[in-house]
Amino acid sequence: MNSGSSLILMFMEQAKNIGNKPFLWSKKDGAYQTTTWQEAAKIVKNIAYQLTELGIKKGDRIVLCAENRTEWVLSNLAVMASGAIPVPAYTTNTVNDHSHILEDSGAKAAIFSNHKILKNLLPAAEGNKGVKFLISIEEPSKITNSKIDIHSWKLLSKSTKDKHSLVDKIISELTRNDIAIIIYTSGTGGVPKGVMLPHRAIIHNCQGAFDAIQELGLEDEIFLSFLPLSHSYEYTAGLWFPIYIGAQIYFSEGLDQLSKNMGEAQPTIMTAVPRLYELMHAKITKGIKLSGGLKEIMFLKTLELGTKKYHKVKALSLLEVLLDYLLDKIIRDKVRKNFGGRLKVLVSGGAPLNTDIGIFFTALGLNLLQGYGQTESAPVISVNRPGQVKMETVGTPLLNTDVKIATDGEILVRGELLMTGYWNNQEATKNTIKDGWLHTGDIGTIDENNFIEITDRKKDIIVNSGGDNLSPQRVEGFLTLEPEILQAMVYGDKKSHIVALIIPDKDFLNEWGEKTGNDANIKTLDEDEFRKEISAAVERVNNNLSVIEKVRRFHISFDEFTVENEMITPTLKVRRHKIIEKYRSELENLYLNKS
To answer: What is the pTM assigned to this prediction?
Structure first.
């Protein structure tokens, strides 16, 4: 398996070796249709040549804004093959979001999917003197008075075979240290920063991922992609790793169609985020509770025996071994079938996975491996290995990756996986990479077997008035496991105790409204009876927390925390400092015995 000197060379070598076998699958006219490796390589070279004809040169930046689909991948590869640098953008970006990325990256062009995306992209592009043209994947509706030329992706993808030698030359001149992609961060510490990832960083991730799971016997693998490719996690784990091992990639139609698409694609490997597991956990446990009777008894017994077996809590007795075998056929086989029936492994990343959620799914027979990383490391730093899972940890470092803990508890990382730096931001780069070590901003520990455990974000740790440190992430994780609570944020830096902002679960709110005769569509959350329900949930959590972690009071709000893509984000789905600013008065009032 030759990874080559660049990602695009790696792809071209795979396309040559694999030929007419299926590569990418997208839904068209209600059915999955494939693009082979050979077809993909031809289209990539055609578009790459046309980009050079439109004036694109090595190092130019091209923004890519589209839903996950075959054309997204081919466009990304074509930009690389032209010598330019792709800059992914979320499809939910506002005009201001697009303006910042176009301006900051100095983009010469942008590729977009449809008219819906164009509504916000076009005003931003027209307000930017550096953008020379746009390319539409779908045929756009007629646009009048546009200041910028809009080209057809379909026309650009047509054959230019006699010009492919020029593209081959461009590809051959790329090196491992050239910038492969610029991915913008979510802007947690201010405006989004462009992370420059060289080819070597993503190749390093692919090699490390292969080393971590190769014991599963990787051959003819199928991935189902549903997280946005504009996010570094899916970009590496859901696109480049499949290319690295010569796998097929199916694109999901969205979260609401995910179960159906699993049955159609029958994936062997999936990259997922904790939010998906939280939603599935809530759905499964609610369904089992409603079923009751023998079904509920068997399900709970499966969880009990699975926890003992897979997490080595206690050895199973002979009777339990026989019962577990029977339940495996009755319960776990059904669970596995819901994931398509051929799944070898699920990798969880992008946010912290609650240990109880992880144990729940592994007890049901799914091979769930939690990993850890960030965009600045391309993004994977560590992952649990099959047969060597410590669910409370994020596993051990990838192959050829150095990890250590600084004196203040911060996790530091070194290796070829590190970014080159932040685009046009040397100051931020110097503050993040010091003496060759990436300062992650995460607090954690490493045990005697090299397993990493993340305890919190460095800047999010709450220090109460007594000088005790506590992890808001831990408390929030427990709160959101309660069926009554959708989201939670705790507050209390330099205070004597902590308080919380609670967002009730929508389904629970509707059920409570029907049961009590209250209209759940109006603000009934301040009523004493509803507060008692939420209070009971908070108290259940408090029973399992230390004294300093207990939530003394809470404020209830209707407003759900949202960001660009909620499936990618942690339980707390938006930047903490913004939530605090919005609700500061309500949270401070809780310390005055007000609610």
So the answer is: 0.84
Q: For 418-473, how does the pLDDT look when each residue is reduced to its tens digit (9 = 90+)? A: 999 999 999 999 999 999 999 998 999 999 999 999 987 777 778 787 777 788 88
- The radius of gyration of the chain from alpha carbons, rounded to an integer in Å, stands at 25
In DSSP notation, 549-577 reads G-EEEEEE-SPPP--S-TTTS-SS-S-HH
Running DSSP on this structure, what letter comes out for residue 329?
Answer: I
Residue 183 domain flag: no
Tell me how far the alpha carbon of residue 177 is from its chain's centroid.
Answer: 25
C-alpha–C-alpha distance, residues 259 and 567, integer Å: 15
Q: In this model, does residue 331 exceed pLDDT 60?
A: yes
What is the span of the domain harbouring residue 558?
Answer: 462-592
Residues 6+ apart with CB under 8 A from 10: 2, 3, 4, 203, 243, 244
Q: Are 513 and 523 in contact (CB under 8 A)?
A: no
Residue 79, in any domain of the structure: yes
Q: Which two tokens stand for residue 458?
A: 């460095």
pLDDT at 201 exceeding the cut of 50: yes
- Exposure class string for 279-302: b at 16+ Cβ within 10 A, else e: ebbbebbeebeeeeeeeeebbebb
Q: Is residue 581 part of a domain?
A: yes
Which CATH number is 503's domain given? 3.30.300.30
Per-residue pLDDT tens over the stretch 136-169: 999 866 665 678 999 999 999 998 888 999 999 9
